[in-house]
C-alpha cells in the first residue's frame, strides 16, 4: 500500500565540509603541506540529496551565509533539483563549515566546526513553511535549536503530520523534548539513545522500547557495522548490516535515513525499509563521497539481493 505522499520536506543543517589531508605527519606550530578537498554536508542537506537521487521530490529548509560557501552550496542544491524556496540567508553569520585536518593515513587530527548560523533557524521561520507541510513528510535534524525542535514536534502532533528526526550527536539529542509524542520516526545511534535516556548501560532493545514509551511511534536505532534495530507497534526487529568494504564512513547514517523514508513512502514495512536503508549505508561507506552520485532505488534493491547476508529476526516483544 502506498502512502499517497511522495514529497519530503527536510529542515536542518547544511554546511561546507573541508578536508585537509597532510602529505607528511602533522607538526603543530608550523606550516604543513596538505591536499585540500571541499564537499557539501550537513545532515538535512545530505538526506535531501540522497532523497533527490532516489527519485522523490524534496525541499530543503536551512540557512546560509551571504558568502562564497553559501552561494556554491545553494547552486549545488539547485543543480540536484532540490526545492530551495524555503532556504534562509543570514547577514550576521558565515555559512556553516566543518574542517577536518587529517594525518596522511586519514586519521582525524583536528576537527573544527562553525555552526553558529543554525541558531537563526527559529520557530518563526517554521511558521512560514507550514502551508508546505501539509502534503509532505517532514524530516528534521537536531542541528535545529531546541525551541524550534519543540515547535516542530508540537506542530506534527497537532496537525497529524509524519515527522522523522535524526539525533545528530550526543550533545544535540538533548535538544529534543522529553515527550516524543508527534515524532513518527526517530533515527539515532546507541550512544545518542543512551544519552537522551540518561541510561548509559541500556541495551539496544531496552533503549528502543524506552524511546517508544516516551511517545515516538517508530525507532531506528543504529549500531554501526553491527546493523540496527527497528521498533514499532508490532515489536522489535534486529536487522544486520549489509557487508561493505569501508572506504569512508561519512554519510552512512544520512543515506540510511533517506532510503528508509523513501521505501516507507513507497509502502514498504519498517523492517523492509530499514533493510534498504542498510544497503544505502553500505554503498555509502564504500564511497569517498558522503552522498553517492550513482544512488538509485534500483541500485538499493540490486545490492540487497546480491549481498543477501542480511538477517531479519523477530524478537519476542
Ligand atoms: N562498516 C560498515 N559496514 C556496513 N554498514 C555499515 C558500516 N558502518 C555503518 N553501517 C551502516 O550504517 C548505519 C548507520 O551507521 P552508524 O550506526 O555508525 O550511524 P551514526 O553513528 O549515526 O553515523 P553517522 O556519523 O553516519 O551519522 C548502520 O546501521 C549500518 O547499517
Ligand atoms: Mg547519525
Query: Strand tally, please?
Result: 15
Sheet with the most strands, sense and barrel status: 9 strands, mixed
Beta-strand content bin: 15-25%
How would you write the strand order of the largest sheet? Answer: 4-1-9-10-11-12-13-14-15
Ligand set: adenosine-5'-triphosphate, magnesium ion
Number of helices: 10
User: What structural category arises from helix and sheet content?
Assistant: alpha/beta
Shape: globular
CATH fold-level assignment: UDP-N-acetylmuramoyl-L-alanine:D-glutamate ligase
Radius of gyration, Cα only, in angstroms?
A: 19 Å
Could you give me the name of the CATH homologous superfamily?
Answer: Ribokinase
**Which sequence of SSEs, written as H and E, runs from N to C?**
EEEHEEHEEEHEHEHEHHEEEHHHE
Q: How many structural domains can be distinguished in the coordinates?
A: 1
Roughly what percent helix?
25-40%
User: Average pLDDT across residues?
Assistant: 95
Amino acid at each position: 500500500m502506498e502512502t499517497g505522499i511522495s514529497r519530503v520536506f527536510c529542515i536542518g543543517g547544511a554546511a561546507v565540509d573541508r578536508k585537509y589531508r597532510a602529505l607528511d605527519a602533522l607538526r603543530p606550530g608550523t606550516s604543513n603541506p596538505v591536499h585540500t578537498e571541499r564537499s557539501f554536508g550537513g545532515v538535512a542537506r545530505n538526506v535531501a540529496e540522497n532523497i533527490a537521487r532516489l527519485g522523490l521530490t524534496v525541499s530543503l529548509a536551512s540557512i546560509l551565509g551571504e558568502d562564497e560557501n553559501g552561494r556554491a552550496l545553494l547552486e549545488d542544491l539547485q543543480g540536484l533539483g532540490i526545492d530551495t524556496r524555503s532556504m534562509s540567508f543570514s547577514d550576521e553569520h558565515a555559512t556553516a563549515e566543518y574542517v577536518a585536518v587529517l594525518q596522511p593515513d586519514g586519521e582525524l587530527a583536528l576537527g573544527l566546526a562553525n555552526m553558529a548560523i543554525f541558531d537563526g533557524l527559529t520557530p518563526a521561520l517554521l511558521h512560514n513553511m507550514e502551508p508546505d507541510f501539509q502534503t509532505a513528510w517532514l524530516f528534521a535534524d537536531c542541528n535545529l535549536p531546541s525551541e524550534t525542535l519543540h515547535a516542530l514536534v508540537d506542530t506534527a502532533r497537532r496537525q497529524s503530520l509524519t515527522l522523522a528526526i535524526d539525533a545528530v550527536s550526543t550533545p544535540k539529542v538533548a535538544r529534543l523534548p522529553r515527550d516524543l509524542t508527534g515524532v513518527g520516526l526517530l533515527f539515532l545511534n546507541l550512544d545518542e539513545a543512551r544519552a537522551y535516556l540518561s541510561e548509559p548501560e541500556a541495551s539496544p532493545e531496552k533503549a528502543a522500547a524506552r524511546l517508544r514509551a516516551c511517545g515516538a511511534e517508530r525507532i531506528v536505532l543504529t549500531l554501526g557495522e553491527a546493523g540496527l534495530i527497528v521498533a514499532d507497534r508490532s515489536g522489535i526487529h534486529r536487522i544486520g548490516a549489509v557487508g561493505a568494504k569501508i572506504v569512508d564512513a561519512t554519510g552512512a547514517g544520512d543515506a540510511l535515513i533517506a532510503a528508509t523514508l523513501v521505501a516507507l513512502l513507497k509502502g514498504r514495512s519498517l523492517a523492509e525499509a530499514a533493510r534498504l536503508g542498510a544497503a544505502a549505508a553500505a554503498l555509502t561507506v564504500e564511497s569517498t563521497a558522503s552522498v553517492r552520485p550513482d544512488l538509485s532505488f534500483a541500485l538499493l534493491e540490486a545490492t540487497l539481493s546480491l549481498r543477501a547476508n542480511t538477517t531479519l529476526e523477530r524478537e519476542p516483544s
